[in-house]
Amino acid sequence: MIKVNVDEMLRKNSELITSALDALLPKGDEPHTVLYEAMRYSALSGGKRIRPTLTLEFCRLAGGDVTAAIPYAAAVECVHTYSLIHDDLPCMDNSDTRRGRKSCHIAYGEANALLAGDALLTYAFALASENPFADAERNCRAVSALAGAAGYDGMVGGQVCDLLYEKTAPDFSAFIDMECKKTVELITAACTLGLICAGADEEMHAAARKYAYGIGIAFQLIDDILDGDTAGNTVLAYMDRAEAADTAKKLTESAVESISSYEGCEALASLAEWLLSRTA
Amino acid sequence: MIKVNVDEMLRKNSELITSALDALLPKGDEPHTVLYEAMRYSALSGGKRIRPTLTLEFCRLAGGDVTAAIPYAAAVECVHTYSLIHDDLPCMDNSDTRRGRKSCHIAYGEANALLAGDALLTYAFALASENPFADAERNCRAVSALAGAAGYDGMVGGQVCDLLYEKTAPDFSAFIDMECKKTVELITAACTLGLICAGADEEMHAAARKYAYGIGIAFQLIDDILDGDTAGNTVLAYMDRAEAADTAKKLTESAVESISSYEGCEALASLAEWLLSRTA
């Protein structure tokens, strides 16, 4: 398989996404300055931009125009950023730091962080519904896919399970179901939005869902292995590190396999392997 | 003008909306039960359903099929409900009660209330984008109008101003701008979504915006008069009760005037007057 420099690919996509977000997010404009700053602080704070990269790369894989997928990619990143802001709030994980600096509510106060999260979530749907490079049919599908992935039976549902399972450890299948909702659903939506933009067929959507499942669960397993904690909602409550690493490897192989018949699949295949081998 | 029984109209529309929300909101289904219950607790807790009534009545006024507007009306009510849940949170208004019973975070805990609000906001966009009675063009416009009204330059922006102005009282025009963002924008979207559903022309959209402005600001003024407090963000910091009542009356007249040329305008005209004369 052709070697792809994943660091370079992520850097290029990240530049695209960051400059799009910088242009699309509101700025200046009293009296909302503090809201706009809080939104920008969290959305422009770095991060690897894995999810929006998936949107762009799946659009590319399906032969679509990557520029047309940028508003969708930005929408996905807004949803991801909102989820981090709300997760960090005192009533949730109560985390003072995020990506090596103050979390949003430490920097801007709790009320502004709550509202910045609300505004980013809302803006994601504005971006997707108003993508000028796609027609109403595609924009509607994008909104629907994103809302489904983020909502009560997706990311928010996963968060509720996470809170519940801190009290009572679930069985393994319920644990995996939680990880699917918390993480895999939005990763799936990220891939799906790229394909919607490119007008891909259902077979390709099915392949993307399989890919997203593989890299999404593997991502969580690697997180848990790197974290090393065996208490709480971690795969290490169900298997040892070697077994978890082996499972992540198999999931990654299955992700790579799912897209292997598509020409130009090397970038996404290499990304899956890069995610498996990460050490931080 | 034909007499319209507003209580009866609101009762009928409220029944439609409540039974739609009851059918549309998730229920049962472990392990999310607590999330679904919190969403339902707040969305099915009564309230006059003014906003979704506006959606249905503007659809009717424009000759549209009211049934087709129900998913949009439900979406508007989900956004309204989310805003109440997040407003009541300890870091915002810290309110223990809402509509005569425990606020969502008192009943379900702060984390679940935060997440129930997030889920309702997200679900609003699912409902609007997936309205089976309208085409993708209309559903996209509905999502866009709703996201604009709810977002950083709409309701969330208004909330940020409200927080700011607790510290420094603004001049009157900034105060009115805050009220527009906090309240009028979503009321405007409620009217607009009914018209989008019916395929109304731009002239009717302009009339609806004027109507929404009139009833929206009048609504806030009446709230402030009934509340009677002269401290904080209230119109009584700028004028006395009599002046405020007179302003509300003029705004209501202007709202009624804006739609008076449309056949069947009596229901919405009577609603505007009913809102002006309310005593609670």
Work out the oligomeric state of the chains in this entry: homodimer
Taking all Cα atoms into account, the compactness measure Rg of chain A is 18 Å
**Roughly how many Å apart are the termini of chain A?**
26 Å
Query: What is the spatial order of strands in the main beta sheet of chain A?
Result: 1-2
Low-confidence stretches of chain A: none
Helix content of chain A: over 70%
Beta-strand portion of chain A reads under 5%
Shape designation of chain A: globular
According to DSSP, the number of beta strands of chain A is 2
Largest interface: A-B, 53 and 54 residues
The sequence of SSEs of chain A as H and E is HHHHEEHHHHHHHH
Number of H/I helices of chain A: 12
Structure commentary:
The structure is a homodimer of 280-residue chains. With 280 residues, chain A is mainly alpha-helical. Helices cover 71% and strands 1% of the residues of chain A. The first copy, chain A, has twelve helices and two strands. The first copy, chain A, has helices at 6-24, 33-43, 50-61, 66-88, 104-108, 110-129, 136-150, 155-165, 172-198, 202-227, 241-259, 266-277, and strands spanning 97-98, 101-102. Chain A has a two-stranded antiparallel ribbon with strand order 1-2. In chain A, strand 1 (97-98) and strand 2 (101-102) form a beta hairpin. In chain A, helix 1 packs across helix 4 (66-88) and helix 4 runs antiparallel to helix 6 (110-129). The radius of gyration of chain A is 18 Å and the shape is globular. The relative contact order of chain A is 0.13. The model of chain A has no long low-confidence stretch (mean pLDDT 95).
